[in-house]
Amino acid sequence: MGLANKLTLMRIFLVPVFIILIGYSKPLYALIVFIIAGLSDALDGYIARKRNEITQFGKIVDPIADKTLLLSAFIFIYNSQLTFKFPFWFVVLVISRDAYILVGSFLIYLIKGNLKVSPSIFGKTTTFLQIATVVYVLLININSKFFDVYLYDGLITLTVFLMILSVLRYSYDGFNQLNSSLEKNH
């Protein structure tokens, strides 16, 4: 197993550490773990490309590790004793978006027998904004002087807007894959 895949596995093992720190209301340590996990994500991708260590395992497990960390952050921060949290409706939208994309991908795979996955700029921007939102919420739980209602509301609103755009883009791409498959069969 290459270094890139080891970093991906480390990120998966950091998820329960992050959850425990949130559960014990330790936002500073949770933020440190979250940042380490985020840096390992950037580093494993760089190493995989640089060392030509791109593997099927990495292609499957890396996005699972990313989603596990992000979804855990939204769910467990919302359910924590921390002072600043995410709105319930926002957490539901984050989970619903990922479930929609997962179910849609699975259905395309079932119907076509394969799936072409191409992350869109909207999807990548959504992920960046979700990460920024988690970091900001952890920061304001560390020190409430960082709280700015306009920044908080702006991050939430912008993240929701990009989530909607990404769902529309992934839906468009998914329907195109299904249509091209149907056209080939007729």
Outline the structure in words.
The protein is an all-alpha fold and 186 residues long. The chain folds into 2 domains: 1-68; 83-186. It contains 6 helices and no strands. It has helices spanning 3-23, 27-50, 56-78, 88-112, 121-142, 149-185. The longest helix is centred in the C-terminal third of the chain and has 37 residues, at 149-185. The protein is globular.
Blueprint of the fold:
Layout: H1 3-23, H2 27-50, H3 56-78, H4 88-112, H5 121-142, H6 149-185
Helix pairs in contact: 1-2, 1-3, 2-5, 3-4, 4-6, 5-6
Helix content: over 70%
**Tally of DSSP helical segments:** 6
Mean pLDDT across all residues, rounded? 92
| Shape type | globular
**Biggest beta-sheet profile:** none
Distance between the termini: 44 Å
Reading the helices and strands in chain order gives: HHHHHH
